[in-house]
């Protein structure tokens, strides 16, 4: 057993358990959690101490006394259909008035009324605000009208969620302050200063993010309790102070509609407008400036500052090039999936820590039992760990930890034992990384989206929240594969071409989304850049709707997939209804099929895949490697000196990940080299500096399989469910 | 047994059979068919004689000698991706050179070259024609280029199809002449004149349509044998003579791209452009002028002129207001579905005749045996007849008939007997119509599309060719329901509102199609007109993607269905990915459900229905009557004084037709009145003038059910499979 790199949630009143498990799990740090405190005995036990603070909502009394300093946002009303020449709109109808209060004293000049039938703004002189109701004159019967208004948020959303979900009755409702007000910024700084003085034993201040929550609009209709939510949206950074500062001196000001966007708001899934990108930069600059002051306070008190990438991370942007300027000493992330571990590991910060699941709560997020009779927390922990460990083989994570009520684990001896095992495994893998990085495949992958590097290793939110998003499954597969992965912005590709060093470009996601790209594909220089890249020998893997444009966005174009000439595949969006489809045979035995389907159980790999019903083959040279109901699901084609693979969809799993891996090797025009395994459920990583080869099983059954090097079998391994084998590379050479 | 109203295909060499069946089936007319002739004995047997001619391709020798007078069209080449600054395009690469020959001697100034990556035309000075190859200079590497060219068609497509399908070897290839050339028009007229002289016994010249085939482009790639086909497209009416005449004096000329449309061509399924509509009118005027001259020739010879609505019907347009000016004495239509019978019945022409199926051929269109061992032509005939008879209950068809080789029926005594039965049934129903029209429901239905009246009772082609087209299923259901149906143009609704007398508006079809409407829904006046219509008490039934616009076509709009405020339902095209869905319960017992689901086996009615995965409920007042996999498939809502029903899809069948019927009654705000049946497989029609009620079964099993009047049971009937009951209305009163 080794020690260190483990953060244990302590619990006052359970000192003996806390200290016993701290030793058993090799913990070097004890933390508090939501709802728990640390007692003097724990604080004095010579462990590092993390203290959690959520600065923006900590000081409820002051917030209550300064309600005009709370956070705001734009809200688009629900539409009202005119039945005469006057329409009255209650802006908050349909929204939770526990969350929102109309701000009718500051910034009404920023409101906008729209005729949503014509899509045009109603002139300011045609509407007025009367006792909280917007009265629109000169309306056209049959047209729908909405108003975008500024609202105060009088209940912080996480507090609201916990309160409502747990039926907390009259427990106080927390409020989030708007730090753009200088009085608030000063108050936060002073509060933190005092807090540091009062908590000398804390070694690490664990900021539960910083200022701005992700967007989450609650509804009043019991059938529509949540109107809008997005983990990466900056909707909650809006307020008159910020708007006026942003617009000062601008020829074209930012408007309410730049945020409301006809009810789409600034969802991360949609391509961002140029002005919204500027707003994000503007907000990041502010969050950085104030955030750095707060980190300085912590540092002045001789403590470290870690930040938890969580609810209020907006503006923080760990993948912004300026993130290191915050001076954070560590980044902590709660993780369900491997890609979230890669997100954390890839950030430029000294310490990377994961908060593992299960959370030490009686039930999980979906209400299923965990640490109560009927729960099996050990099985849960094993499932989460095997998902996570794939990613940890590829990238260094310095620390892991748990959260919640430690006392709940007392009756679960097997859980206690399993966590000890996990902690040891983690330290083993971490130490290998520290000795020298694992070997990577000689195929560098560029995932191209509208967001590029800023949204590396994420598509906004957890996999279980976006189960249908193909790109999220792609990055989850990539998280455990031995390829170097870069996240590229489509705008940059259009401007500068595909960067040197990229071997295979990936474009994936629904048509029109920020992930596949949307309207950026109407830029001929982007299409030409990718086409030339492949023609010159590059690889392309397109998933779902790569390079897709709507017909109205692509006048004069032949295809919906702008890369159809390269992919050999297109989709008919209905406007080519009568075009006869190209016939095809499924080619399971040709050279491309032998490479791409190698070692893959195709039925398993494609389980759950939804083929695009309008798929048509744009070129006769394309080989269909798999099809469902007569619709191609996997195709491969050569184009110039390069190659392209199309996957109608991708649902992560061992076989699907192997299929993707094969596709990347094939598209790169390379034979797989380095270490590999015969069974897709076995992941392998080679740490040359340590002379160690790790083989990890993601299966919940025993697996026996071969380890291969450059295509030759060098060992056979038999792993227990979720097992890990540590092999000596030198012995394999023998 | 009655006689008349029946056209029998005679066959020389089988005179006894011909005359025996003519008597058995009550025929009054004998016709020739493709491949058969009538002998002197038949011609002299005192029957009316139909003679089939397909004028445009009859005179092969003259066509062969005048190949510059053949028909032409624009063809868009397949794209070529530039790998340097010059691109060479073989315009016909990928197309059948048996069908197409490049016209490089007349009209090259009408060709256009396009950069399909930017969607822009390449200036004329940047390309040249060199030995049949188009050489484009100054190309951008990675961009795709195409050329639109004029081609001659050296093989008429129906001849081509029969030839290729039946392996006819060196049997002559027929060619279609272009009647825009005055020499051709004169030749056709002279040829017909001579033909009439030489065929004194012919009483009816049966024009197998007139001049222009529907568009059908053959490919050279065995995997893409048909590149494009559309039954209603005017692509084959194009040639330099017509183009120059059309463009003379026009500020903005029509171009090749107005026809090619980036490879979409002028498919009937896509919304027509204004200039293409003008081209259609221009062509109709020409077809009418020359067609009338030909009809006059026939009339001068004391014969009648019937026209067969078939392969070469383009420009004929039976639903054009000018169609009666042709002077045709009858319209014949080959029919697979009830809606095709309604299409025929609704045309303003003296005689309406149907060519029933099966065709007297050894095998059917799909190659399945018919009049050979293994075939069951009687079962086929019964199935077709029950489909057709639903429509015949509602609208008068004067004549029916068969086509093909009569000798083939000789061994099939049961078929001979069944046709006698069908002929009698038809005469019975026809005579009831002649005595006075059947009662119609007091709910007038308006089906609104881009095409309006011009494409009444069709969506271009047969149901088996467009099995996924929801509107086609809707009109097939409507064909046998007792509602008056009008086909309305969405442009007209925008200009003039919903016409008086319409009770329920139907809008149905895929998003962006000419059927649901496409971009016309960006016109606020259209949305307002329909919204006001429903608010004032009208009904709306939306199917699949009613009033749908793409996001790029609807800036500033809240919804994809522009009528979402009325329907209470919208679809998320992906750009509202994170919006929480409105929760709903399926309400199978509320008032709307009781009316709309009454008497319907919902599972059967919705079998095969594909719910729209992105369906969201736009209003909380909407009732979900049925859902599949959590996605609403049938909803109902009240809006103002009116009502709206949404059906995610519609697949015709007895229960689905009943569901649609119920939806129309409910949307109209009326209780069903008049005659009805308890079992959706029983259709009922009341002929007040005759005092007769017909009950027809569309089932292939015996059915017992009730006949109702104004909701009260007035009789019980038991029908054999496909049976017909004739009831005395007076007795039902008793």
UniProtKB/TrEMBL annotation, chains A, B:
Domain Lacto-N-biose phosphorylase central: 444-671
Top-level taxon in the UniProt lineage: Bacteria
InterPro entries hit by this protein: Class_I_gatase-like, Ig-like_fold, Lact_bio_phlase-like_N, Lacto-N-biose_phosphorylase, LBP_M
Span of domain Lacto-N-biose phosphorylase-like N-terminal TIM barrel: 4-436
Pfam families assigned to the protein according to its UniProt record, in alphabetical order: Lact_bio_phlase, LBP_M
Gene3D superfamilies: 3.40.50.880, Glycosidases, Immunoglobulins
GO terms of molecular function: 1,4-alpha-oligoglucan phosphorylase activity
GO BP term, example: carbohydrate metabolic process
UniProt protein name: Beta-D-galactosyl-(1->4)-L-rhamnose phosphorylase
Organism the protein comes from: Salana multivorans
Record lineage: Bacteria, Bacillati, Actinomycetota, Actinomycetes, Micrococcales
